Amino acid sequence: MFKLIKDICGRRELLFLLVDRNLKIRYKNSVLGFFWSLLTPLLFIAIYGVFAHILNFNATRHDYLQFLIVGIVVWQFLVTCLNDALGVIIGNAALIKKTTFPRLILPLSMVLANLINFLLTFVVLLIYLFAVSSSFASLALFPVVLLTQCALCLGISLILAVSNVFFRDTEHILAVLTLAWFFLTPIFYPIGNQLKFIPPASQWLVFLNPMTGIVCGYRAVLMGDVSVAPHLFWISFGVSWVLLVIGLWCFQRLAPRLADEM
Asked: Which of 35, 62, 209, 249 counts the most CB atoms within 10 A of its CB?
């Protein structure tokens, strides 16, 4: 592990170059360019605000729109990383075949580029939440939640990146699993809607879904919304870091075979 970190640090210029390339590709031939990172969350807020009002979702709680937007923005960071992971190796086949470098740099640069986009979106989200007088109860914990989500995004991205090289059905399987995962995660409904069907002694099982604790963690930090015992968040956080370790193990084990499979 230490050798891998040393190798990546030794190729940090390549890493920064790939991050910059990923950011430019996303907005290539776009008139507004990086402004889409700021405009997209504003459009989300407007669209979800209209439909939340039409469907009367905001009758359940006065801050439902803020509640929903936080969940959607956090979820989009994950989904963007997972979708981009499918092509992060295949799309760089020429680079892999002709150049020697730590292959981990490719998915890592993709996650870092998406992190930058997420942070730009997050600035807009913070301004919006401040404007509607949300309570930033424990903003100091934000780095912990963010780092944990980055670990989750990288861990699963590593698995998907190599999986799609050997099994091209990965893209179709991911689409189905992502949809199921979305509905299993309390994005548009409170976590209590899940917990009321589960005996109190077994409620920790819900937090084996890593995004459950992460989404609840963001809402606790940004909105002061602590509807469950905070110690349950750490179950999701632990699962996220375990998935990172598994992803690193799978990726490093299969990395030597990538060039031969493409």
From this structure: 209
